[in-house]
Amino acid sequence: MNRFVPLNDSRGSGGGENVPPIVVHVPHSAIKIPDEFARNFVWTPAERTSEILQMTDLYMEELVADEMPALIFPVSRLVCDVE
């Protein structure tokens, strides 16, 4: 099985050479903490918000959304750090 896919001419290669497919991994862009997990935090809501803003890669989804396939996680890394 070929692990590479031909790059089509519409993306600018012109030659059709084989290139590895790219999937962007965006593990830390979500700010959502589901209610069933939020009650387990000892921070005040303001402290939790501050921590989320410091630990989140904000706007990464928007940077890659239309450019290539992306694996984007729906909950904050404060709930589950997938790396």
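Second entry:
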Amino acid sequence: MMTRLGATILFLSIVPAFLGCSGGEGGIVEVSRERQCRANMNTLCTDQANYRDATGRWAGTNEELDRYARRTRPLTCPVSDEQYIIELRDDGYIVRCPCGHGSVDTGRRSWTAGDSS
């Protein structure tokens, strides 16, 4: 039978791993932030498509997309709170995370479904 002290020590050694506080890569918090970041990039790309349908051109800045989508706060990477990088090209655009969580090139993601690395 486990003592109360033993149960407490076991609990305190397991919980940080679930919360992403273990110091290692891939904790649940890190994975969650990466997925939120990628969801934000997907949202910006949907906004880009809608913006182009409405105006005939791609938006060159986050501010243009925020105004168009009527966002009161810009979408930012949840890790750094920095805005996404938008680059225009002759044939499309790239939305890139400032922290390296990936990019979307005119609707084509740099990551695959379920990829959290």
